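Teaching note: in complex prediction, the entire set of molecules is handled at once rather than each chain in isolation. The prompt given to students was simply: 'Predict the structure of this complex.' The entities are:
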Amino acid sequence: MRIEIKREGGPAYFPGLARPRAVDLTSLPPEQAEALRHSVQAARFFELPPVVGTPAPGAADARRFTLTVEEEGRRHTVQFIEPVEEPRLHDLLEQVTKAERAQRRGARPGTPG
Amino acid sequence: MFHPTRHRHSIHCILPPYLARSIAQNGSSEQRERALRTLSTDSTFRALRLAGSRTTPSTLVTRPRAMMVESALHRTIYDLRNSEAFPGTPVRFEGQAATEDIAVTEAYDGLGDTFNFFWEIFGRNSIDGDGMPLQAFVHYGKNYDNAFWDGRRMVFGDGDGDLFNRFTICPDIIAHELAHGVTEDEGPLWYFRQAGALNESMSDVFGSLVRQMKLQQKADAADWLIGKGLFTGNVEGVALRSMKNPGTAFDDDVLGKDPQPGHMKDYVRTWEDNGGVHINSGIPNRAFYLVASQLGGYAWERAGRIWYDAIRDSHIKPDMGFLDFARITMMSAMRLYGAGEEADAVRDAWEQVGIRVPKPGIGIPSFVGAVTRPSTQAGRAPRA
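The expected output is the structure of the full assembly:
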């Protein structure tokens, strides 16, 4: 399974977060990688529409995440606009952002993972 | 100049009791003058806007509305305890003592700073101009990297601790978010392309002014940064944005480089970020900074008033671009101060960011310039 994430919105535009970045499942602790795989399945990711959620009227600075998952020859991209309240989709986003953070910490010299 | 025997002009009778008390108790004569000047011009332009652009000022009727009521700051801070389930637990009501939770304290103070700024400087009673109670929710979600106004309430995440600190840490971010509520109420400005960048810029302008007022900084002493202190030590950067030097706030391995332009020649055409709302806002941000620096003194006094008057102008359109907005700021400067250094500063500032505003008189409705200058009103103000 291959997962890519890009992130927009929030308080500013960060080019580094807005470009698609791969989440490397092999670099994660096995339990975390498994939890992430499980979240993708539980969210029925490949059946989701291209856009999930609508920003509240009058809301500014809402975040949006674009996830792309590749698995067994399939590839699907979904944009999530906050707030994402459906528990399984919420869990998926939380797992992906957590994995991304762990990966970043691991890559930073002198920082314990 | 005092005329104690003459009947007071109705415009000076609308001073809210709260402010009148505060001024009587604490104000110097200069502060009294300034407050009266601010309030009288505010009601004039509120009335102008209500009356529509074709009405001549001589037929104006002062509309007291919210000005007659006592301003009241009603804050409630809720603790979501790292869930996203509203409403959480109320932990501090208006007037209660601080708790040990720094996020609660910062949110409470930030709402107060913003409310007081809009009230004291512009006579605006809360976000909607009608005394809306302010609610903030802290500790939203886990490691949540954002703060937002959702149309009726403020929500703050704790940050992930890796890139971002807690989002209550910057008073200018709190004010930025609340100012989105003001723009929504006054504009609105669609959150897309140039209109969206103007929307973002209004929030940065008021966000920065709230912080400058809190610190009592004049334009040349302010750093003009938005979100200073939000990044953790892991990030190479000082803030989210710089209004003075757009594009210089951060340059980091993970976040990338601050993408903001400060001139139309570097305008970014993109589908990302709602058409670049947080990117191209650097252009109007810098224009505001240039006006404020040119005029000197406290930026909220003249530059801020011109911008606030502009966002409340009846010519504001939800899909307007930078040039239209620049014209409106020119009209506001003329209306407030007549042809003079203020209007010149506004025109020069827009020109310096690559936006040429036509000479005054062209395309400006007839009521402009007919209104008494606020400074002359102020000379008569402290009668009573």
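Point out the following to students. Residues 104 and 199 of chain B are 27 Å apart (CA to CA). The interface with chain A takes residues 84, 142-143, 145-152, 160, 162, 167, 173, 176-177, 180-181, 184, 188, 191, 199-200, 203, 227, 230, 234, 240-241, 252-257, 259, 272-274, 276, 278-279 of chain B (CB under 8 Å).
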